[in-house]
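Transporter: structure, please.
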Amino acid sequence: MRPALFILLFALSASSLEAARPLVTDDARLTTVQSCQLETWVRSYNSRREAWALPACNPTGNFEITAGVGQVVGGEMQASTDLMVQAKTLFRPLQTNSWGIGLAAGLMHHADVSAGPNGFGNLYAYIPVSASFYDDKFTVHANVGWIKSRGDNHAISWGVGTETRISQRLILVAETYGDPRYAPYAQMGMRYFIVPDRVQVDATVGQQINQGGSGRWFSLGLRLTPGKLF
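Here you go.
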């Protein structure tokens, strides 16, 4: 898998209250104040499979820290491990029928001896902007960011995603994202709250545009967002 896809998939999707899994495009929200959340998912392609776990905590109210690990099996790399750490804050939190903006930055580190899908590491930063319409029935998120990897030059990343609330428990999502060097990626799917605001399952299908069946994937995820923990 190309480095650009890995950094977009895993750097941009690590936080937020609702526009987290399964969206890659991040939002202008943080996880619950003085609590933590856990996002975990499996993404399956024709020739490889990825499994990720990303816990995130918000100890002070406007500072979220995420740290996690991912394992890729199959494909050209056969087996690969990546570690991630990210910090995020908001300048204006997203509110109903309004908009919000923030800033996130982090590092993806390849832990194996040989170079992996992210080379040996990527530095990145991005600005998430979100807007709520119709009492949160429709929400739009946009990201613009910067990536610096050891193997590549600087690159600009981008993403646009939407959430359409069908009911209290069911939300439909769709997005496209990428960087100018490659064909963009797109996915669509749903998230369903087994326990409202606490336990979420989700699923998506996606692919790299104009790349045919070889770039398609299917993902399943679980997100746990407990109340105040400390």
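Notes: The chain has a mean pLDDT of 84.
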